[in-house]
Amino acid sequence: MAQLALSNIQKSFGTFQALKDVNLEIASGEFICLLGGSGCGKTTLLRIIAGLETKTSGEMLLDDQDFSTVNCHQRNVGMVFQSLALFPHLNVGQNIAYGLEVRGVHKDKRQDRARKLLEVVGLSGLFDRPVSALSGGQRQRVAIARALAIEPKLFLMDEPFSALDAGLREHLQIEVKKLQRQLGVTTIFVTHDQHEAMSIADRIVILNEGRIEQAGTPTEVYAHPSTRFVADFMGTNNIFTSEFTPGQATMLDGANLGTPSGDMAKLSGKHTIAVRPEYLRLAPANEDTGDLIGTVNFVRLLGASIETELKVGERTFVHTQVSDRAPEFAVGDKAGISFDLDHAWVIPS
Amino acid sequence: MKRAVIPHLIGLFPLGMMSFFFLAPLAFMVVVSFYERDPLGFYNVAFVWDNYAKFFSSFYYTVSLRSLWSASLGAVVVVLLAFPAMYIIVDMSRRWQLFWVILLLSLMCLSEVIIGFAWLILFSESSGIPKFLGWIGLWEDPDSLSPSFGAMLTGFVTLGFSLVALMFFPQMAQRDRSIEEAALTLGTPPARVFSKVVLPNFLPAIISSVVTMFVYFLGVFVMPTMLGRPQDWNMTVIITDKAVGDANMPLGAALSVIMLAFTLIIICGLLLGSRRGRVQT
Questions:
Q1: Run of H or E including A296
Q2: For A203-242, how does the pLDDT look when each residue is reduced to its tens digit (9 = 90+)?
Q3: CATH assignment of the domain containing A277
């Protein structure tokens, strides 16, 4: 059963419509990532769930109870803000215990809880430290512990790692995921980074211009993007329109891409297909390399992989390969481009 | 290297001038405070403690305590009014913020004398507030509200309000509002967010504003003479009276030195107290 159900949520700021008919069901204990570019409405949606913004219309149920009429301070949601919003006048322990103090929990109990959470987030011994004396990573952990101290029904995080360096960000992503699994708390995490979303979410919800473009597991949205926007956003760089004729070769700008099989074999007419860069094959251009010949435009090393950009007329293809060997092609080289049509994905029109 | 030295030298000039023009009169005042009064002239060079001994007479002692009381009360009241007012103003639309800031700046442009006269008229029996209250039937027998301690305090607040409010403005406007939102999500009722989070966060700024206003009100001269009764006059009025009216410069200097010492001790105490408070939290 869904713990949180959002139906037809709309939000307008004057004439600007920030959210348009958002429908989403989140199961108990699920880790959801709201993913999208800036201004897509992901933070607005999170703030509506937290009670910091009011929706213009729609229905919001938590455990089958109308949630939208409950005041923010009575919703029992733990939220980690982008700026972290730690209370500068309180020390680490007082920050974590703040929510319990407001709820009238006895001092000994709230201090015990704060110490336990500090242990969970790996900051034992920092109970009395002023928050101003903490490093960036430690501040993140304190903000997480403070939000979890109240045992929230929903744990909300608004781009909490955006200001951190790459190494620390990855480390904290893993820690948050482990912590969420350990506590089983329903979590909604806002990010604009698809790698971050892929690495921690049970389900990714991709938003664009206030609408949900696609919601699915990381594998689903990565391998089978349902819209061109999702394909673009998830890094599927090779998106193009091909001509399909049932039982015959698929054509792209006069080049033969091979004969499709399965459901793709039934297609006819023009369809947009997407191929991930890792499924592209490159070979030195010669008589056997097929019709699709490109000129290498750019080569860059991305740590674990090498990315090669090729131009075929006005069209750009991107190829990636693991960087266990030196790049096979240099800028200006001609290369034959091919891929297995089974690895291509038809984007529904 | 030369480039770095020149700005320092340029900076040293005003610093030196300010130090000279503050320290030289101060040193002169300290020296004069030990001189003897000449009833026929200004003063005679001497080294006597008589001027300081006079401070411990009940009159000066009472005036000093009164000065501290009126300055402290004025400082606390003005900050208590200006802080929440600014908290509300910074959340208004840009247009209204601009309106209030211009209004506060305009208030700062008014001289102490003009503000004093304005209140004199407003507090007078024949016009202003008492007459209005009588006219609407809230005051059966309207009487002038000045001179009085309340009128003097009102003058203090009018003088300091815009200054304190504009001191708070940049900090208030740039504050991280998500701290207040965090308090809300953690269960703080909206009515308590101000006292639980906003006020403690601004405590250092509040203390420094109270100290600034306290020092400012200790030295105010026009408001006590225009709006206060003789029994409300502060040490500044008495010092002026002694130094100028009675031509007793040595006594005036001694009283000034004592007030300066008092002020410094109180400021240091407040600042040390607030720092210790911050370290403990």
A1: strand A293-302
A2: 999 999 999 999 999 999 988 888 989 988 888 778 888 8
A3: 2.40.50.140
Q: How many domains does one find in chain A? A: 2
- Nearest by CB to A90, from B189, B190, B281: name it: B281
Helix (H, G, I), strand (E, B) or coil at A211: strand
Tell me the shortest Cα–Cα distance from B104 to chain A, in angstroms: 30
Cβ contacts from A onto B, under 8 A:
72
Beta partners for residue A79, in sequence order: A156
Residue A344's CB is within 10 A of a number of other CB atoms, namely 22
What CATH number is given for B56-280 in this structure? 1.10.3720.10
> Taking CA atoms, what residue in A is nearest to B199?
A89
pTM: 0.80
> Could you tell me the residue range of the domain that residue A267 belongs to?
236-347
Q: How confident is the model at residue A1 (pLDDT cuts 50, 70, 90)?
A: very low
pLDDT of res. B2 = 59
Shortest alpha-carbon distance between residue B183 and chain A (Å):
8
Q: Are residues A207 and A109 in the same domain?
A: yes
Beta-carbon contacts of residue A76 (< 8 Å; ≥ 6 apart) = A150, A151, A152, A153, A154, B187
Tokens of B134: 């009588």
Over residues B158-172, the mean pLDDT reads 93
Reported ipTM: the value is 0.85
Report the distance separating Cα A211 and Cα A333, nearest Å. Answer: 42
